């Protein structure tokens, strides 16, 4: 008979980060892949995510994904995003983000990987500066996640055996 143990210790994550969207020029970090007069315009992007809003801020990752204009009013998009961390603390971990919102709105955190496994929460996005073709937004992240311990499964004639690796 197999036996196992489940530890469900949740950790809370509260942090403020900033993303930089550049819409044109040599530093553009997004492209329009479908262009429509009203609804349906689709963008693909890899926005920089930093620990501060200024030019001297450290890059902590990238927000990568798509945005689709989904309403007849301006600036309402359905987003499917992955916040991919590249900093020391969460290197390689991700937050999976989804939601319909305006520029100043809220997204749902619907999952995560690595240290942020099974994350659930929200991200409140607020535009703090829009100059020329560049938008800087504040990202207030609040999530709960379950840090995962890896397990191994072995089998023998008497059944399965689970142990922490």
Describe this entry's structure for a reader.
With 165 residues, the chain is mostly beta strands. The chain has a single domain (11-164), classed as Beta Barrel (AOC barrel-like), CATH 2.40.480. It contains no helices and eleven strands. The protein has strands at 11-22, 30-34, 42-50, 59-69, 77-85, 94-101, 105-113, 120-131, 134-145, 151-156, 159-164. The protein has an eight-stranded antiparallel beta barrel with strand order 1-3-4-5-6-7-8-9. The protein has a two-stranded antiparallel ribbon with strand order 10-11. Strand 5 (77-85) and strand 6 form a beta hairpin. The two termini are 21 Å apart. Residues 150-165 have low confidence and may be disordered.
Count of helical regions? 0
Unreliable residue runs? 150-165
Q: Strand pairing plus helix content: what structural class?
A: mainly beta
Number of strands: 11
How would a textbook summarize the main sheet?
8 strands, antiparallel, barrel
Query: Could you state the order of secondary-structure elements as H and E?
Result: EEEEEEEEEEE
For the record, the CATH class is: Mainly Beta
Oligomer: single chain
| CATH architecture annotation name | Beta Barrel
Strand content range: over 45%
CATH topology: AOC barrel-like
Family: Belongs to the plant dirigent protein family.
InterPro entries: Allene_oxi_cyc_Dirigent (IPR044859), Dirigent (IPR004265)
Protein name: Dirigent protein
Subunit structure: Homodimer.
